[in-house]
Design brief:
This protein is of the alpha+beta class. The chain is 56% helix and 18% strand. It is built from nine helices and five strands, in the order ββααββααααααβα. Helix 3 packs across helix 4. The radius of gyration is 16 Å and the shape is globular.
Length: 202
C-alpha cells in the first residue's frame, strides 16, 4: 500500500504535504531541527555524503559537493542553517537509480540523527523539509514517466524510493561517514576526492 503522507497547514497558511507528521506547533524547519551550527554542519555533511555514495553505487557521476552556512531572519526569529549541494553529471542510469540517489541524502541524515542520539519524530520531519529540493527533483523525473497524476501522487511515488535508499545507506554507512567527515572538515569536495574517501569509482 502506498503511504499517503500527512497534510499539514504551515504558519503562513500554506498546505505542507509530508511523509512525517508536522510538529503540533512549529514556526520553521530550522528551529524545529534546533541544532547548534557545528552539529547541523555534521548532519548536512552526512546528508550530502548519502547522495554522493548512492551516486557512486548506482553509476551517477559526481562533479562536487559543497556545504553552505545560511543566516536568515525568519518571522519567528534569527536562524542559522547549514545546507549542501551535490552536483552531478548528465544522467545515464535508469530513473529508479536516480530516485534512490535523491532519497539517500535524507536517509543518511536520519540515520546520522539516530547514531548521534539526536533523533526525534519532529527532527525527522525537519530533515524531510530540508530535502524538499530533492523531492522536487524526484517529482520532476516522475512527471516525465507518469504524466497524469496529481501533485500529491508524485510525492507518494517518490516515497517508494525510501526503502531502497535506506538499504543502500545502511550497506555503505562507513563510506557515508568517511565522505561526511571530509566534507564537514573542508566544506567542499570534488567528485574525485569524495570517491577516494568512499573507496568507490566515480
Amino acid at each position: 500500500m502506498m503511504h499517503t503522507g500527512f497534510l499539514n497547514t504551515g504558519p503562513d497558511g500554506r498546505f505542507v504535504h509530508s511523509f512525517y507528521p508536522a510538529p503540533a506547533v512549529w514556526c520553521c524547519a530550522t528551529h524545529v531541527l534546533g541544532l547548534p551550527e557545528e552539529t547541523d554542519r555534521q548532519g548536512a555533511a552526512a546528508h550530502e555524503a548519502g547522495h554522493a555514495v548512492a551516486a557512486f553505487v548506482v553509476g551517477i557521476h559526481v562533479i562536487g559537493i559543497t556545504l553552505t552556512t545560511e543566516r536568515e531572519q525568519q518571522p519567528c526569529g534569527p536562524a542559522v542553517a547549514v545546507s549542501g549541494v551535490t552536483d552531478i553529471g548528465p544522467l545515464a542510469v535508469p530513473v529508479d537509480g536516480y530516485l534512490t540517489m535523491l532519497a539517500a541524502g535524507e536517509a543518511a541524515h536520519r540515520r546520522w540523527l539516530r547514531e548521534s542520539g539526536l533523533y526525534s519524530a519532529d527532527r525527522a520531519w525537519a530533515v524531510e523539509c530540508g530535502a524538499l529540493d530533492d523531492t522536487g527533483k524526484g517529482v520532476d523525473a516522475l512527471r516525465e514517466q507518469v504524466p497524469e497524476l496529481e501533485d500529491t501522487g508524485y510525492r507518494q511515488l517518490f516515497w517508494r524510493s525510501r526503502p531502497a535508499a535506506e538499504a543502500l545507506v545502511d550497506a555503505h554507512w562507513n563510506r557515508v561517514l568517511a565522505v561526511a567527515a571530509g566534507l564537514a572538515r573542508l566544506g567542499r569536495l570534488s567528485g574525485a576526492e569524495a570517491a577516494a574517501l568512499a573507496g568507490l569509482p566515480n
